[in-house]
Amino acid sequence: MTRSFEQNERGSHCVARVGVASPHRRAFTLVEILIVVVIIAILAAIAVPKLSSAAQLSRENSVKADLQYMRTEIAVYESQHGDVFPGGGSSGANTLFAQQMTGYTDASGDVQPQGQPVPPYNFGPYLTNIPINPLTGFKTVEILPANASPQPDNNYGWIYQPSTGIILPDDTGSDQAGVPYTKY
User: Could you tell me the pTM of the whole model?
Assistant: First the structure.
């Protein structure tokens, strides 16, 4: 309720008016609110898949970068150790691979137990740690025998074959272009 006072033409007396609020001041109607909600829902339906797609593309690019880095470091290890790949020729190769890639080694691939670069342990480390596969969330490495072909099962971060130096992501899926992750 509002009150207003008016003067007559002579300005001699005031008249008080009591009435309802001005028609120019009003709340939103239910229809207006529903229209805004529908517009927001449409925009969210457009934006959310694009954000999800961008996150997946980021994971794929991260896997490619990790693979490139690990493959380069495996090749450096091989060149410094008489054409022998890390993790080769030993039982418990999963542990040996990680130790040889993240520790100091001698020319024959023996790992320095104290982790210090003292002679003859002049090589490495090649990696600060085994990277986590962003697709699977694991950083473990499945070591394959010389005659086995890689069979991804999403149980490890990476698949590695010491006889060939091949390392692949352990993921059964494909990227947004339809390329299997094992073809990276």
Answer: 0.72
